[in-house]
Amino acid sequence: MSPATLAHCSILLLAGGQGSRMGGQDKGLVTWRGKPMVAWIHQVARPLTDELLISCNRNQDRYTRFADRVVSDAEPGFLGPLAGIRAGLAASTGRWTLVLPCDAPRVDEALLVQMYEAARADPDRPVMIRQGDRWQPLFCVIPTQLACQLEAAWQAGERSNYRVLERLGARALNLEPYDQRLANLNTPEIMAQHASGPGT
Asked: Where along this sequence does the record place binding of Mg(2+) (predicted)?
């Protein structure tokens, strides 16, 4: 494996949404620059981890080739990204779980390593990316031991992953406001804007 391997860190890709802004399409499987968006993230993440998980609620058979294991929400109804994180943490065997959305195909190895190193610097607290004054709660690293606390928040009715991470004492990893690696290509219009230019 690469020297940049993220030791004891699982990677979780969130692909469980309805894709409402994509006309109901499964975003991770939408083609961008000739292949599914999830394939771009898989290309970056696969060499860095011993455990690559994908949280999805449909097309599990198509996602299987991009993951060591596929997990699904414990409850029906597309309940949001926190449900996917909940399922991923329950399945994760790493000390940390690095979370990424499936519609961010411009992530690169340097970003994932930076997130991991930020988590290792304070190993018992989550890390969440912030761009200027804007938080990006779907780009985070969570100590897997906090799964019980996240579950307690879920059972209490919380559905915001940002609020859960904030309560768990998440630290900010500050990045530039216009860092294109964090671009969520979650509408056809945004995908078109990123159709050309350097890849990941």
From this structure: 103
| 127 in a structural domain | yes
| Average confidence (pLDDT) over 27-54 | 93
Q: Which residues contribute to the annotated binding site?
A: 14-16, 27, 73, 103
Phi and psi at 50, nearest 5°, equal: -90, -10
Domain containing 172 — which CATH number?
A: 3.90.550.10
Binding-site residue numbers for GTP are 14-16, 27, 73, 103
As to burial, measured by CB atoms within 10 angstroms (0-12 exposed, 13-18 middle, 19+ buried), residue 186 is buried
pLDDT for the residue 196: 61
Residue 199: inside a domain, yes or no? no
Which residues form the domain of 79?
9-193
What residues are designated binding site for Mg(2+)? Answer: 103
Residue 126 falls inside a structural domain: yes
